[in-house]
Amino acid sequence: MEAASIGTADASHDHGDHHGPPVAHHSSTVEAQTLGMLLFIVSEIMVFGGFFTAYFFIRVVNGNPWPAEGEELPQIIAGFNTAVLLSSSVTMHWALEAAKHGNRRGMKLGMLATLLLGSTFLTVQINEYVHLGFAPYDSAQASIFYGLTGLHGAHVFIGLTLLLFATIRVFKGHFTPDEHQGIEVPGIYWHFVDVMWVIVYLSVYIL
Question: Which portions of the chain have biased composition (kind: Basic and acidic residues) (predicted)?
């Protein structure tokens, strides 16, 4: 009886024996790529925070006029550009939903539309700089204006680069309903860029 018990215990031990390193414990449902992007966005928010601190210091603490005297901001053009960028968030979401449902045509159209709208936003912003009539060195207000909008424009360019790579992969047939992080992660960054622009637009052009 004792020998049988020992044999059963040994068999149980052998069955549960694990060789090699322990299996990683996933304490979160967030994928590593998504978490990495979210942490990167947090760091970018801090960068924007530094520029907004200078902006509010000029307007609130010093009480300087915004924009500086003799300078004028194109609110209508900026409003049009805001609508363009917000529309690109809709098409980006459309592309992601198409990927989740295996709709390859929807993925292609959604990504191409997002690229087109994002490129339009950047083109309009560059054209705005050309016709503004003041330079970054003309005043402290001008420096902050170009700093904030230029920083955002750089993020739009980075986002478009990420979306371009994702679009190329879409046309190569890389994504499926189960594997679509290559669209989702750049999409998170793109939505961040859109939200940040709304804050910039309301603060700089409207308030």
Answer: 11-20
